[in-house]
Design brief:
heterodimer; A: 419 residues; mainly alpha; 2 domains; elongated; B: four-stranded antiparallel sheet; Dimeric_a/b-barrel (chain B); YCII (chain B)
Chain lengths: 419, 129
Amino acid sequence: MGAERLSHEDARAAAERAARASYGRLVALLAAPTGDVALAEDALSAAFEAALDSWPRGGVPANPDAWLLTVARNRQRDHWKSAATRSSVELDEEGAGAVTVLDEVDPDRIPDRRLELLFVCAHPALDPAVRTPLMLQAVLGIDAARIAAAFAMPAATMAQRLVRAKRRIRDARLRFAVPTRAELPERPPAVLEAIYGCFAIDRGLPTPDWSTSLTGEAAFLAVTLATLLGTEPEAWALAALITLSSARLRPPGAAYLPLDRQDPREWDARLIAEGERYLRRASGTEAPGRFQLEAAIQAVHCDRARTGLTDWPALVLLHRALVATAPSLGAHVALAAALGGADDPAAGLRELDALPATAVACFQPYWATRAHLLAATGHPAEARAAADRAIELSGDEAVQVFLREFADGLGSRAAGTAP
Amino acid sequence: MRYTLLLHYPEVTEATGDEALSPEALAEGQRAFASYAEVLTRAGVLVSGEVLRPSSASTTVAMRGGSLVIQDGPFAASKEQLGGTFVIDVPDLDAALEWAKQAPSVAWGTVEVRPGAVFVRDGAWVPND
């Protein structure tokens, strides 16, 4: 072992690096035999604490993961032993079995069971609303308070939901295994959906709050899932979608600009190249799924960095396919906006008019898109009313400023001044 | 790990005004349950199985105000009643759900899959592993 003396800060940094890279891998391995995720997390956090105590004195071990696994495994064993003592019976079968299974793990060749853990977190026996938070905590080690902030929920409520979900995984004994597509065709989509959830939380906000942003975490999970599944086109497409979208994230405090007004030179070329690489791996033999279409839409937008032009006809086609594949309210509104970009705002308005009034009443993107399409078809007064409604519905100050300027610009046009 | 499949479904009773099941439908249901029990037995997962008489034959016993009260009828009067139970011993919930999907009554009711906590073996309580 490189017994170089470390400051407490260096040891902390090393422990945190190990935590970031190995957290999910170690939790998956510790929890799989008994299904007790909470116990695995407790044992692992005790191991991290021990590392902070021991590494500054003895140096960072050659294989930090193996070190952490051994300490955490001992913690688990202590827990089972004391539980067995309390109930005055021999170590029950479950605990004894788990110890044996873990003893067979060669610390130098730690298997990766994160995929199983991801599938447990998105298990059909769990409430869909808890799946994304559970993944963030069990696979990435993000604490309940930060997850709660991202989901705009009190920390205690989120913590309680996570505790309940983990208890359910243990008590009902959910299977830690990767189901084949033939077994349960709905399982991979549920995992993708939950990872998309980490990303969608941010995407709902035009200028995400970076202290609570989960986009980086979502990208990490998506790439991990795609890599572990190997050849699942929709998994690679989700990785592409998230990576391409993060290439265009605006710096904190930046003024809001809609996509087509952004300067492509400000985008992250490295992330665009990475996202395009994932998208190429996503091409399968079947008809493109929802995430492939969404990623392709992002790729078309990003292509402006190369060509200087937006291929609006291609975007209209992709949005039409998306509406046919996954007909959400957002998909319809995005198609309307694409039609506007392709110089057919009247068709965009027709698309919007076909949506049920009750569904769109409080949907901010509908009103913002409607305002722009009405302005483009020469209806400044109605456009201003729609913009006002969009401003009312927007929780983001930067977006409000942008829409206010847009509405004021309409005012001068309405008064007869040249646009 | 033991799971109990609780079969809930609407009962065909005079009270609900429904017509009684035809003898053919009844025989069809009995055949379906018989073959379900056979499949579970062959797979070596069946601990016990029971289909109950309608809740109109039920009697409840409870302590009310310090004395035991015996009443006719089921625990709760609702449209769906507990109609039967199957106890199975399988490795995990996913396996239990696969068996639950094959229960004949999923076609006309709900199958609740509930893990057991403890059970009696040779007169002593044993924790469900």
